[in-house]
Design goal:
single chain, 184 residues, alpha/beta, six-stranded parallel beta sheet, 6 strands, 37% helix, 20% strand
Amino acid sequence: MNIAMINGSPKYKDSNSLKFLERLEPMLCEDNKIIHYNPAAKPFLEEQYLELCHMDILIFSFPLYVDGIPSHLFRMLISLEEYMKINRQNSITVYTIINNGFYEGIQNHIAMRIMKNWCLRAGLTFGQGIGMGSGEMMGSLDNVPLGQGPLKNLGLAYQDMADNIKSHSTGNPVFLSPNFPKFA
């Protein structure tokens, strides 16, 4: 299976969105070809849009910006939609990881709906999404294994998403907060 991991953060490097993709990647490596994309580094070329049209899975990871999608990613999605309508030959399923600075993951529900609606317009299948709160904290816990401590719920959500990706299935969006008291 061909999988595109798209870092939608406006940061060129060291973004939490990239860290969240990197945590998911080992769960998908077996028998899959994974290619990384970063639309913030420079605008996509036609060849990159065409590559995306021939993927089986698209995984977007991005931070929440005013309840929505970062503008550079939004522009890329608009262009990709047109390429998909003309050049896509197989079914493509989209998965999304959204992080925000609020404690509550439910704050990502509007951005999740934007991604679902974009999938409908582009003729793609929305597979599943994870909306997590406390993205800065969650991204800084490099030494904490998924599924343990503050990352317990995230580990469970990642395993569910990885299983759905491997089987090309869909699942309900998951909105989660860290396993860490809000007052702390």
